[in-house]
Design goal:
Two copies of one chain form a homodimer.
Chain A: H1 6-15, H2 23-35, H3 38-54, E1 56-57, E2 64-65, E3 82-86, H4 89-96, E4 104-107, H5 126-134, E5 139-142, H6 148-161, E6 166-169, H7 185-193
Parallel strand pairs in A: 3-4, 3-5, 5-6
Antiparallel strand pairs in A: 1-2
């Protein structure tokens, strides 16, 4: 695809660096921006640059934040002794949107995965251990994706903080609305071995 | 979806103004940018702003251009007496990528569509008429989308420039690789009434 202008070509190649955006989609987006007011497009560029330059990560939990401490860590209404450990900021947003969790978070920034060259040092594990030793944490809830890397990470962290607090992980089982028939064997087997008394089952 | 930072929220809302990008995709793109170097993201913002501010439209054919006259109009190897009339810049790019057309273009910027409030005055029709009167144009090829608005536009322009040059429109018929069975009646009927002798058919 040959474009009639280098300015256009540069803009298209910038957009097509984004995940899931190919050259054709990039061109569509750029041509859309071309139709907008100059001021509006400049605002678009400025807001993106500003976001990257000025955004902070909470010093306590590594969540995205406008200040040094994020709004969740600074909120005294939330249970500061309960820490939910997640991989990414997207997981924080997902859990927050359930409105069922009133504790705080700790964003690891990934999971231990030797194959991808990610060791414990690249993750926010030190700060988590420090946090648990310093604060009077009551419970650590792991909400990592259910796979080998996630389990390795849980094992590694649990060893490090062993006697300090209670450690749990979110329930794994058949999803609400899912069908038994189509569940994989691992999930089905786990959901049977981790079965709950009916009275204890929270709707 | 509640986001933990206004900077993030602004960036997401800017991205979700783009066509075909919802809030979830916008968040994915913004979080991707957050992982990139500051310099890279600033370059992204700058290139987009610069593109909008500095890009020019060819004074002759209204195509996108880096200079006052676009590279196609400035190219003496191309047949400057042949004008292909298209709706948008995207059509220019599509025709150029076939590498089968060696004339010039004229970008109307849309088609006459009273229902959408688009009249001849909002389109680059005056400049086309002026161009044909000034230059020694031999043929005008209409490559508009085959619909009522396109046909109206062709009719309107043809009336305006009537005796000056030959006027043609790109062939409409069954697409290469298409199946007769699934073609709509209008297309099939036209392709029969506009049939060509087998020898005249260009592969």
């Amino acid at each position: 695809m040959q474009l009639p202008s280098t300015l256009l070509e540069n803009a298209v190649s910038e957009f097509s660096k984004l995940p899931g955006i190919g050259k054709k989609t990039a061109l569509r987006l750029v041509l859309h921006l071309l139709k907008q007011d100059v001021a509006e497009v400049q605002q678009f560029g400025d807001i993106i640059s500003k976001m990257r330059t000025e955004i902070k990560f909470c010093q306590r939990c590594s969540n995205i934040s406008d200040a040094d401490i994020c709004s969740i860590c600074a909120n005294s209404m939330r249970n500061q002794r309960l820490i939910c450990v997640v991989e990414t900021i997207r997981d924080v947003i997902a859990i927050e949107s359930t409105q069922q969790f009133s504790g705080t978070y700790h964003v690891l920034g990934g999971v231990i995965s030797p194959l991808d060259g990610v060791g414990p040092d690249q993750l926010n594990i030190e700060s988590l251990v420090y946090r648990i030793q310093k604060e009077e944490t009551e419970e650590l809830i792991f909400a990592l994706n259910p796979n080998i890397q996630g389990d390795t990470t849980i094992y590694y962290i649990q060893k490090k903080i062993a006697p300090h607090c209670r450690v749990t992980t979110i329930a794994r089982g058949i999803a609400f609305g899912g069908e038994l028939e189509y569940a994989d064997e691992m999930t089905l087997a786990r959901s049977i071995s981790n079965r709950l008394p009916v009275g204890q089952y929270v709707k």
